[in-house]
Each structure stands twice: as C-alpha cells, then as structure tokens.
C-alpha cells in the first residue's frame, strides 16, 4: 500500500510540472508573435523621401523653392507653388508653407531708411536715417542724435552710436576770442545798416513816398512781416500738412518724442489741434526771426516740395493783402498831411499880406 501511495504522488507531481510549463510557454509564444507582426507593420509603413520633399499622409510631397509657397495640400511639381507678392511678401528658404511672410517696413517717421528693398526671396533691410542712431540690433525705432550745446564734438553720431560731446576746458579757447571779435564787427555792421535804412526811410517820407523808394522796400517788408506774424498763420500752415508730415517736420528739428507723445495725448481725437500744438511748440523753440525761411527750406529738404510751395503761396498772398491795406492807409495819411501843409502855407501868406497892408496905409 505504501508503494501505491508513492506512485500516486509521483503522477500528481508530473501533472503539475507539465501544467506549469505550458502556462509559461504560451505567453512567451504570444508575445513573440506580436513582436514579429509589429515589425512587419513598421516595415510596411516606412517611406523614404528626398531632402526636397516632406511626408504627408504616408506620401512624399514636393517642397516649394524660395520666393514661393504651396497652392495645394501636397504639391507634386513646382507648378503647384505660387510666387510671393513683390514688395509686400517674401520667402527666403525652401518650405512646405501655404503663406508668404510679410516684408519689413522701414518707416521714416520712426527714423528708418531703406538700405535694401524687399524681394520675393529676401526681406527688406533698414538702417537709421541721417542724424539718427539705434544701439540695439532689435530696436523698434531710431533716436535723434544728441546735439552738443557747446559745439565741441568728441565723436560723431553713427547709425549705431550717439554723439559723444567733449567737455569745454577752463578759460576761453583761442577761437573764442576770434568769435567775439567777429560778433562785435557783425553787430557794428548791422547797426550801421539799420541807421542807414532809417535815414533812407526818413528821406523817402519827406519826398512824399513816391518813386522807387516804395518798390525797393517792398520785398524786405514782406519777409519781415512774415517773420513777425508767422504765429498768426500757423492754422493756415498746418491745414496744408498731414499729421505725419507735421511729426516728421518737428522731429527733424529735434523735438523730443516724449514732448510729441504728450501733445498727441493731450489733444486725443483732434488731429487739427494736434498739428497746431506741435507746430506752435517748434515755433516757440525756434524763435520769431528766420522762422519762415527755416520752415520753407526744411520742408523742401524733407522732400515735401509741394507742401512748401502751397504754404509759400498762401503766406505771400496773405502778406500781400496786408501790404495793400497798409499802403492804402499811408496814402490817405499822406493826403491828409498835404492838405494840412497847404492850409498852413495859405495862413502864412495871409499873415504876410496883413503885415504889409498897414505899412502902405501909413505911407498914404
């Protein structure tokens, strides 16, 4: 009986060993089969494209060359690529994009100038305009160069660096004495001219305001009148200019950006008042003398010749009208003085007659 029990235990052990072996081999076999299937699927999906192509939806599509973008989802030829708009858009590399990039704008109002125009294959290149600089390569606008108050410049302004001013040494420099002498001489000459004009004008009035005297002083009077009364013409001047043109003009004369921004904000939504205030600010800084000449010459230097011509014509017409009214007044005044002189002469003659009349009576 003990031998039978031993055989029974041996059979049970063999059955259990066989069962465990099957449980271990089945998962290994299944995992091995899945790995083989995955490798086959990967090998089936593998697509090789060239450097001038890209993969989209398990197929190779052609990239567009520089200056072009695709017009279809998956181009097969360059005929499926469209060019960028010249002067407005560009694309500087082969691509699989459907939109071109916008060209850079070199805004003169921000102190920029165009170095290289935008093409379909290259973006525009900008640089700071004359008398402007920008320290950072990524700056958004160029700043006005510093003007040295004492006129001593250590280093001139460039497109990337500001002006470096040199400190004035103690005492008067050699050229200072020469400058003072020149100033005194110029002052003496100016005083002599003024005295000469006054004497000439006095003689001119004495002679009855006739002949060529009035014509010779007409041009001088016109220029002086415009200078003296330019502030009265500011509304008419800015009416011929846009807000951007006024900004460009005052920036040209070194009106600071904070001052410009403050005036714009103080007169928000009123472009006319913004232009007037900006121009008045420049006129206050410049002063009365020479303002008219500075205005016209600066506008022409800034390529605003048509605006300069309109303003010049309008101001001359206004001053001419004022001149005519002045001459009319002078004529009336001259006639009144002439009548007074004739009346005085008649009175003097009558007095002489009265004086001689009694003498003749005494002789009788």
From TrEMBL:
GO terms for cellular component: CD95 death-inducing signaling complex; external side of plasma membrane; membrane raft. One of its GO terms (molecular function) is calmodulin binding. Keywords: Apoptosis, Calmodulin-binding, Cell membrane, Disulfide bond, Glycoprotein, Lipoprotein, Membrane, Palmitate, Receptor, Repeat, Signal, Transmembrane, Transmembrane helix. It comes from the Eukaryota. InterPro entries: DEATH-like_dom_sf, Death_dom, Fas_rcpt, TNFR/NGFR_Cys_rich_reg, TNFRSF6_death. The chain crosses the membrane at residues 175-196. It is found in: Cell membrane; Membrane raft. It is a single-pass type I membrane protein. Coiled coil: none annotated. TNFR-Cys repeats lie at residues 83-126, 127-165. Residues 318-330 have a biased composition (Basic and acidic residues). This is Tumor necrosis factor receptor superfamily member 6. It comes from Meleagris gallopavo.
